[in-house]
Amino acid sequence: MVQPVITDLFASRAPLSWATVGNGILFTAQIPIDDQGEVVSGGIEAQTRQTLDNLVHTLECAGGGVENLTQVLIYVTRREDLATVNRLYAEVVKAPYPNRAAIIVSGFAREEMLVEMVAYAAIDEAS
Fold this sequence. Notes:
By secondary structure, the protein is α+β, with helices and mostly antiparallel strands. It has two helices and six strands; from the N terminus they run E-E-E-H-E-H-E-E. It has helices at residues 43-61, 82-92; strands at residues 2-4, 19-22, 25-30, 69-76, 99-104, 115-122. Strands 1-2-3-6-4-5 form a six-stranded mixed β-sheet, with helices on one face. Helix 2 (82-92) links the parallel strand 4 (69-76) and strand 5 (99-104). Helix 1 packs parallel to helix 2. The radius of gyration is 14 Å and the shape is globular.
């Protein structure tokens, strides 16, 4: 059975859950929004920090942590931002690292966004 993960993240106006768990796998996509639903200002560093904070919060709400990550897909709009994203990612996610991909995209649904992360994690369904 698929269950939504209850978080303290801003309630999206879009028809979505910030995360779901099914068959012990957490599925989530995180963006750089604050508790008011606004995309944070301050460029790629601020947006990456917020996205990672939202990811960590979601993992914790699901009963896990970054050590449960199995795969992370990172989307950015500018190739030159990957060095900053990698540096900040490495501050949060430690070895053994999950599988990862980085993809350059032309843009996101919210045009002020510079980064988005899609993540999968192994979560104990009893949590």
